[in-house]
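Open question from group meeting: does this chain pack into something compact, or does most of it stay loose? Before anyone orders reagents, we agreed to write out a predicted structure and look at it together. Recording both the input and the output here so the notebook holds the full record.
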Amino acid sequence: MRGALEQDPALSVVGEAGDIGELITVAELCEPDIVVLVDSPSSAHHDKEELVHVDAAVVIVVADADADVAVDWIRRTQADVRALVHSDDPEEELVTAVRRAGDGSGYVSPGLSGSLLRCVRATLPQRLSVVPTHTPLTSRESEVLDLVRRGMANKEIARRLGLSEKTIKFHVSNVLAKAHMASRAQLIASAAGM
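Structure tokens returned:
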């Protein structure tokens, strides 16, 4: 993996760690923008929670063919997980994931996208055909919702609408509250079920 990342002139590897405890120490010393974390069967739940101490975008490489492992990482940590890659994916997928995590757009490799979508759908309390709301969305909130459902990141939406990223976060937060949903993934999955 290191070799694949070092072949990209835009990336440089600043450190390596054997476990999450060591990763936290290395991250404090090297201050990386992105951390690539390879999941292993020995990764304990408390380790996943400790990842919150790493101030960097996180790319998770999972070996399990099912996305449950990746979803477990996302559920159990407050870390900024921005990309998911399967260990059997070609090395180019890892490089793409790291670059996309770095620019804020996020990435899920084709090896995980189908099972990840199934996991997201399974977390919904019920199948939703529309966004349930008692308070109508403003025209701007509806516009932002449409772009979120297309899979666009806040940064992309901000550029497209000519607004600040902070304003987009505010609108997304309002839409989630009005829709009685906890995450963007639920908004996207509710559109997929329509």
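Observations to bring back to the group:
The longest strand covers residues 80-86.
Residues 49 and 77 are 5 Å apart (CA to CA).
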